[in-house]
Design goal:
Layout (H helix, E strand, L loop, with lengths): L1 H18 L1 H18 L3 H7 L3 E2 L12 H17 L3 E12 L5 E11 L2 E12 L4 E7 L10 E2 L3 H16 L1
Parallel strand pairs: 1-6
Antiparallel strand pairs: 2-3, 3-4, 4-5
Helix pairs in contact: 2-3
């Protein structure tokens, strides 16, 4: 009688922990991304970000080569550094399970721009199979300069985005 109970218990424990592995992986990706932002390790931010042409994150690819995408990303970071943009802290405030293996995360951020501190939220979509994340929605007008969106006219977008940021701060 003891053996069947032990076997069933082991099976249940294995099943339960196996179901949570995707959540652990995706949460780890989100934490990697935001820890890299807090530490201003933009190479790591790039590595964890899904790289895609500006538009919907469902776009599977970019027309850029790896080298072009990396250079473009670092050019976006230069714009953030001009306004002394820093993610000071983050907190995962909500986890939503879409199905057995897809999760989205709501993340509260404390961001500093030109010495002014603001609170923002991001909704993050991590992909287990690709080991990357994309920001599906953000209250931060400057989010596109710290995520994987590429292949857009930075100068054209920057003036509108920085104006929106200042409108939110002041």
């Amino acid at each position: 009688m003891k053996k069947p109970i032990i076997v069933i218990s082991l099976f249940i424990i294995t099943f339960i922990t196996g179901c949570n592995s995707n959540e652990r992986i995706t949460k780890g990706l989100v934490e990697d991304y935001y820890n890299a932002l807090v530490n201003q390790n933009y190479e790591k931010v790039y590595e964890v970000s899904k790289i895609y042409d500006l538009g919907e994150p469902s776009s599977e690819e970019t027309t850029f080569t790896e080298e072009e995408a990396r250079k473009f990303f670092m050019k976006k970071v230069d714009y953030l550094e001009e306004v002394d943009y820093k993610v000071k802290s983050y907190e995962i405030v909500e986890t939503n399970q879409q199905d057995g293996h897809t999760f989205t995360y709501e993340v509260a951020l404390k961001i500093e721009v030109n010495g002014e501190t603001v609170n923002r939220k991001d909704r993050i979509y991590p992909r287990v199979d690709q080991k990357d994340i994309s920001i599906s929605k953000s209250e931060d007008p400057l989010a596109k300069y710290r995520d994987g969106r590429v292949n857009f006219n930075i100068e054209e977008h920057w003036s509108k985005d920085i104006e929106a940021e200042y409108d939110n701060i002041f």
